[in-house]
Amino acid sequence: MDRIRVGLIGTGFGRHVQMPGFLAVPEFEVVGICSETKAHAEAAARTFGVADATDDYRALVERDDVDVVSIATPPHLHCSMTLAALDAGKHVLCEKPMALNVAEARAMLDAARSAQRIHAIDHLQRYMPAHQQFRKLVQEGFIGRLRYLVVNVNTGLGLEPTMPWYFHSWRSEKPKGGGMLSGVLSHYIDLVRWCFGEIENVRGHTATLIDQKPVLSSDYMEGDPTGPDTQTRGEREVTTDDTAVVSGVLQSGGLFTLAGSWSLHQASGARLEAYGDEGTLVLGSRSSLQGARRSDKGLREIKPEFVLPEGIQGHASAFAAQLTELKGTLRGDSAGTCYATFEDGLRVQQVIDAVRADRPENWTRLATD
């Protein structure tokens, strides 16, 4: 496979992250872009020099000149689009969260196995240099046996009253698979599994702290290059969680807690603390890494050995790093890959579903007298 030809579905994340990533890895060529709104697909195609734009994803996945379908749409569309792509004999790269529920995730995995196609999920936190260094140290025994793991992911993403609906769009709609748990914490569920192994049992709580968001007249998040219109047109109900707390036990016996919210003032960002019987590792905000062995007097800075591709930044750079590994798999060389597969996506979805199924009637009520 000299040239890996891609059909890209989605012009939100697909336009702002995936297209720059594809352009940074010369072995990939995006031959067609699809969006529910054809004008958005056409605008993205003009910007990035892609020859074809369409609003018909089925026509795109059935093209003979498409090898890989990259799905960067809201989660409620992932299953149907993935199944269509696999049925057409294409390899699939799908955004997270993988699906709406475990049943959809299993159907996607079963179809990929049956079609014998390569499958991947965009858990890009795996490619951050500090995160890769963190995992390497864990595997080398830096902290020994894990005793306790705590993850906090706190942002102000949806707090301010002026933060309009267009910024969240599907993220605020339960039928479309939105919410803090699936949209953000899914990254860290995957990171926990990737670094420390499978989760044995889990329970959790979710809440919606901000239940109304202003609606503006623009559809900016779908790729409108003119940006948002500031005219407010009422409010819409938020039906997804913006805050979640998860706790559980790993198969190794280590305990963990994972919590996050995108509705906080002066939010502290992301932080992961791993405490073992031989040492401690801390991933801080902005991907700083610190560590200490049991006999050390305090934490010290640890410089990652890993680097991201140059020329692009942020999520696009991590996406390009994933593509660099994925191209090897597509060409028959799977050595050294760390990208998440549909198996990983299913395991993450199992945790999400378990937390959402946890009901107050199952909790232990404490005496008040």
Q: How would you explain this protein's 3D organization?
A:
This protein is an alpha/beta fold and 369 residues long. The protein folds into 2 domains: 149 residues, Rossmann fold, CATH 3.40.50; 178 residues, 2-Layer Sandwich (Dihydrodipicolinate Reductase, domain 2). 32% of the residues lie in helices and 25% in strands. The protein contains 10 helices and 16 strands. The strands form 3 sheets. The chain has an 8-stranded mixed β-sheet with strand order 8-11-12-7-13-14-15-16, with helices on one face. It has a 6-stranded parallel β-sheet with strand order 3-2-1-4-5-6, sandwiched between helices. A two-stranded antiparallel sheet has the order 9-10. Helix 4 packs parallel to helix 5. The longest helix has 17 residues.
Topology:
Blueprint: E1 4-9, H1 13-24, E2 28-34, H2 38-48, E3 52-54, H3 57-61, E4 68-71, H4 78-87, E5 91-94, H5 102-115, E6 119-121, H6 129-139, E7 146-154, H7 165-168, H8 180-196, E8 199-207, E9 212-216, E10 232-237, E11 243-250, E12 255-261, E13 269-276, E14 279-283, E15 289-293, E16 300-301, H9 314-330, H10 342-357
Parallel strand pairs: 1-2, 1-4, 2-3, 4-5, 5-6, 7-12
Antiparallel strand pairs: 7-13, 8-11, 9-10, 11-12, 13-14, 14-15, 15-16
Helix pairs in contact: 1-9, 4-5, 5-10, 6-8, 8-10
